[in-house]
């Protein structure tokens, strides 16, 4: 059943999945609030969630999209079945999906549950991806970076670029900075040197300082018990070099102009959720596959998938989407 999408009712199809064979169930069930829509098919929640418990491996996860009374009920059922609640994630959609409601909705809620004592993975998100929609935060980081640079003019130019969407080539050239294929917009300067030092460590010098480490009793301003925490500027440099830790509010744009399903989730959002609860090679089940975003995310990140979609139109569109993803490979679904 691995790496297949089945055009059938998930409540029947899931019965064929062996016990304790799935690492993660990531799904977006019908919320049952869109009256008259074909995708709003009621399902036996108690029976299906019992199947979740059966097919999941020890320490396996359920990642569940939802909203309103249905979402509250689903979380309650999972708790009553012995699942442990682990985390709540908010998807900041950055656009309004319910313009007629008195409270305009720009988010969706995701709950993470597990069987046993599963642990959420610590994930790093590339700095630009994490902050691309938050220019004010980037500007604040640039100001912090100036504190560790002897010559901050290159950062000032980046700040001007962010604020005015323009860059002064004349100023760059005057200060000795120029764009190259290897070093990018400003060329390599002390930022790169600091970045390398934070990654590889600094060469020992002839004057050795010992005042940057904690004393035996004090724990103030210390990291891991024996190393002083870097100031904010160094933390910023570290996040640029190694990425920033994933947060409980994920701002992720939808897949513009390519949606084939009314509630289609962005593939990148699914990838970020999978990174929190799975490892390469894990098996991921999506009982309500819809546009097959989960399957595409699995293909992109070396996970195996199983999916069910009862609607023939969405099933066909999802299979086409998967095959487009796999067009450079020999395997087609």
TrEMBL record:
<comment type="similarity">
    <text>Belongs to the N(4)/N(6)-methyltransferase family.</text>
</comment>
<keyword id="KW-0808">Transferase</keyword>
<dbReference type="GO" id="GO:0008170">
    <property type="term" value="F:N-methyltransferase activity"/>
</dbReference>
<dbReference type="GO" id="GO:0005737">
    <property type="term" value="C:cytoplasm"/>
</dbReference>
<dbReference type="InterPro" id="IPR001091">
    <property type="entry name" value="RM_Methyltransferase"/>
</dbReference>
<dbReference type="InterPro" id="IPR002941">
    <property type="entry name" value="DNA_methylase_N4/N6"/>
</dbReference>
<feature type="domain" description="DNA methylase N-4/N-6">
    <location>
        <begin position="22"/>
        <end position="317"/>
    </location>
</feature>
<keyword id="KW-0489">Methyltransferase</keyword>
<protein>
    <recommendedName>
        <fullName>Methyltransferase</fullName>
        <ecNumber>2.1.1.-</ecNumber>
    </recommendedName>
</protein>
<dbReference type="GO" id="GO:0009007">
    <property type="term" value="F:site-specific DNA-methyltransferase (adenine-specific) activity"/>
</dbReference>
<dbReference type="GO" id="GO:0032259">
    <property type="term" value="P:methylation"/>
</dbReference>
<dbReference type="InterPro" id="IPR002052">
    <property type="entry name" value="DNA_methylase_N6_adenine_CS"/>
</dbReference>
<dbReference type="GO" id="GO:0003677">
    <property type="term" value="F:DNA binding"/>
</dbReference>
<dbReference type="InterPro" id="IPR029063">
    <property type="entry name" value="SAM-dependent_MTases_sf"/>
</dbReference>
<dbReference type="Pfam" id="PF01555">
    <property type="entry name" value="N6_N4_Mtase"/>
</dbReference>
